[in-house]
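Catalogue entry: protein

Sequence with per-residue tokens
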Amino acid sequence: MSPKKYISKTDVRGSINDFNVEIPYDKVLKYKRDRMNLGFLGRFFGTGDAASKNITGIAIILLLVAICISACFKEYELVKILFSGVTLGLGFLAGKKTS
């Protein structure tokens, strides 16, 4: 009997194969191994360069929410301080990567 090369929908549970497409077995194994090694925060933020951008994006969103709440309470000095954090985050996201 030859080893499996593809996995059908019945072999994989979850969102990896919802369209009944045959997926190469080695890709499924890599996906499962990576998912196990990432942990909760790794699954949430991602890995590598994407993780830092995802974390920055979440921080910007939280700062914008804090700005809206501060503006509702007419704390305009706090709005200025928080807005500088937003511009810092946007500068990080849009900045040039040099090596």
